[in-house]
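Below is how a single chain appears once it has passed through the pipeline. First comes the sequence as given, then the structure the pipeline wrote out for it. We keep one example in the README because the format questions we get most often are answered faster by looking than by reading.
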Amino acid sequence: MTWLPWHRPRPLALALQGGGAHGAFTWGVLDALLAREGVELRAVSGASAGAMNAVVLAHGLAEGGREGARAALRAFWQALGTRLPFEWFTTGGHEAPGFAPAARAALRWVHLVSPYQFNPMGLNPLREIVEAQVDFERLRRASPVRLFVAATHAASGRLRLFREHEISADALLASACLPNLHHSVLIDGEAYWDGAFAANPPLWPLLADTGADDLMLVLLAPPADPGGPPRSADEIRHRAQELAFTAPLMRELQWLADWRLAPGGWPMSARERRLRRQRLHLVDGRPHLAALAGETRLIAHLPFLEHLRSLGEAAAEAWWGQHGRQLGRESTLDLARLLAGVPA
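Resulting structure:
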């Protein structure tokens, strides 16, 4: 689609799902959107890897506009992808890697003990990366987009949303804190875990007044497993985690679908009017990622990340070619089909 200069950019809010290394797919989606002059990003929500993408995106926009954001995303994922020598303990090609037998055995052992035992110092290489890649002070002072970073309050299970004026390395690490691998992140004396337990990604704040009536979801979590119930211990553990990390989003989407079917009262409140006019869109990474083993979410190896980025870019370009003209005019997401598990 050619965007003519007299066309006004369409305000857009983004909801970015978490998924570990699979978040590189979202990097590709964002890269493609940032290359389009027809989109004006107003607000971004995310959990875990989705939060990483959201904050790095905002940082890059503040540093140098669209091209600054593209450069910042590339720098972040390159830093992440070269932090550990994954080629030493993975097998397979860059399109579908897996852990070598010894590494897989070590990973099973990790699941049997607490991170406070195997990592008593609480070392987290991700902290070094985010502190080097993001100017948190600048974002707190003047973020170019509204930010909603999800973390889960470990004691109560409640969702904690960190806004742009609250964002910090601790808030971002809290959003990505898998409790079986990392120490809880303490903020104001309270322990936080991965935001995906409570909202993956948060939708409700983007349905409020963010200045954008178009909301795009970027989903990574696999759809229902057509092969029947898992049987091995690894399969059961991975599927249980998938269900835990997708349930909050399904609840929010089901609530929204039910609300839209309910007859509207009169007069409608400002919130009801916003919800009625909200247009929903989806770039669905699940068909591209479903065939990958669950363990690949932990393989932050640059060749694999760049492969996922290329898949995300292609998916976003395909969406734009099919639906770009509907942006700002009508929804392109069929909520009923999504909730029924029908591919988009």
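The CA atoms of residues 114 and 180 lie 6 Å apart.

See the next section for the split statistics.
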